[in-house]
Design goal:
Blueprint: H1 10-24, E1 28-39, E2 45-50, E3 55-60, H2 62-65, E4 78-88, E5 93-103, H3 104-122, E6 140-145, H4 150-162, E7 167-172, H5 180-197, E8 203-208, H6 213-216, H7 222-229, E9 235-239, H8 247-251, E10 254-255, H9 259-266, H10 270-303, H11 306-309, H12 311-353, H13 358-361, E11 366-369, E12 387-391, E13 396-400
Parallel strand pairs: 3-5, 6-7, 6-8, 8-9, 9-10
Antiparallel strand pairs: 1-2, 1-4, 2-3, 4-5, 11-12, 12-13
Helix pairs in contact: 4-9, 5-7
Length: 407
């Protein structure tokens, strides 16, 4: 509670107002249009934030916010400023001390960029295992960029200097503005069709030179990102400067910081390759020479051998060995048939001796009870009055039993 009877000095009142204002308000965001922007020799920025109904004096101190400076901020820009309210005591001026000032358009672009980046990353469009390697020595390279920009001149110049045998195909497109995303997607589709139907492309460079965030926004379009992800040709992105990043940079198979760097990454340097080729050719020549010498030595050794000195004797020896092997085989077959013949004869004798009609031919007979197929072995098997059948070697006899005498 302020004592109503106390008489303040001007400095005391300003200090009390500052303390009250700073304790009442924490750091806040303020949206307004920048006016009267002035940069002091010290590097501090003084400006006014205003809207339709009011104005607010503001300052951004160089030492506190150098890392947060937005180069796009100028008079007439609508910004978001983050800081705190205070009173500048020496003059009793109510003001806003900003620690961060960013244009509203830049903030919206950044927010949309981060949201799309997170979405595509969650879907796996940035995964390293889905990227296609860039060929080491490409023969045909496609370039998607503005045909009138500096980027295409730099790319073609570097490709011709480093790898003159490469053929460059340009697929023109605008690289900024509202129509750029659609034209870039169409250029990717043209390149894919060209590669499939006319001449296979080994690499596709997609990019442009530097610019503001708004200038590079076309390369952060979702449709373009998905077109690059689905492209069967390895894509090398080259958008802006080294510190610039677009969504295409994360989706592409490889990122280059600038179009010139993309050209250097796409092809080897012929002045580095020629010495390697010379070394490889020399190594291959030595390997072939060594192999030929070894083969020549082996052949000479064979020609000095007995086979080549007296070939007829070698043939006779082989013929004699063949005769011996044929004789041994013939004897083996004959012995095998002899063994099988003796085995068959023994089996035949066993079967002959097992013939039930053999005893009949010797004068014996077989007796069966009427209606039975088993010979009688015991007299108890029949009774008086039963009919029996006697089989002889020739013919049968039917009798009736008069008396049974068990043995």
């Amino acid at each position: 509670m302020i004592d109503a009877q106390h008489v303040f000095t001007v400095s005391e009142l300003n200090r009390s107002a500052r303390e009250l204002l700073e304790s009442r308000f924490a750091e806040v965001w303020v949206k307004g249009e920048v006016a009267d922007l002035k940069r002091a020799p010290s590097g501090h920025l003084y400006f006014t934030l205003k809207d339709e109904d009011g104005e607010l004096s503001a300052v951004r101190f160089r030492g506190r916010s150098a890392l947060f400076a937005d180069p796009a901020v100028e008079s007439g820009t609508v910004v978001l400023a983050f800081g705190k309210l205070t009173v500048y005591e020496p003059r009793g001026r109510y003001q806003f001390v900003a620690t961060l000032v960013q244009s509203v358009s830049a903030g919206a672009l950044r927010l949309a960029f981060e949201r799309l980046k997170q979405k595509l990353e969650d879907e796996g469009l940035f995964a390293n295992d889905r990227k296609i390697p860039i060929p080491e020595c490409p023969e045909r390279i496609g370039v998607i960029t503005s045909p009138s920009g500096a980027a295409i001149r730099d790319v073609v110049s570097i490709l011709e200097r480093r790898w003159p045998t490469v053929t460059v195909f340009v697929f023109p497109s605008s690289v900024q503005g509202d129509a750029a995303p659609g034209e870039l997607c169409a250029a990717v589709e043209r390149a894919v069709r060209f590669s499939a139907a006319v001449a296979p492309l080994d690499v596709l460079i997609l990019g442009r030179g530097g610019g503001s965030a708004e200038d590079l926004a076309a390369f952060s379009d979702e449709h373009l990102a998905r077109a690059v992800f689905g492209c069967p040709i390895p894509v090398l992105s080259a958008v802006g400067h080294e510190t610039d990043f677009s969504i295409v940079d994360f989706v592409a198979d490889r990122r280059a910081p600038t179009p010139s760097a993309a050209a250097e990454l796409a092809v080897p340097n012929r002045f580095d390759v020629v010495p390697r080729l010379d070394t490889t050719a020399a190594r291959m020549t030595r390997a072939v020479t060594t192999a030929l010498r070894a083969r020549r030595t082996s052949l000479r050794s064979l020609l000095r051998g007995y086979l080549f000195r007296v070939p007829q004797r070698r043939i006779e020896t082989l013929a004699q060995r063949l005769d011996l092997q044929i004789g041994a085989a013939t004897r083996g077959i004959a012995n095998a048939w002899s063994v099988r013949r003796r085995t068959a004869r023994r089996a035949e004798e066993i079967l002959r001796l097992s013939d039930p009609s053999l005893p009949l031919r010797r004068g014996y007979s077989l007796t069966f009870a009427a209606g039975s197929s088993r010979p009688l072995r015991d007299a108890s098997g029949v009774s008086a009055g039963d009919r029996i059948e006697t089989r002889l070697d020739s013919g049968r006899l039917t009798s009736r039993i008069e008396e049974v005498n068990p043995g």
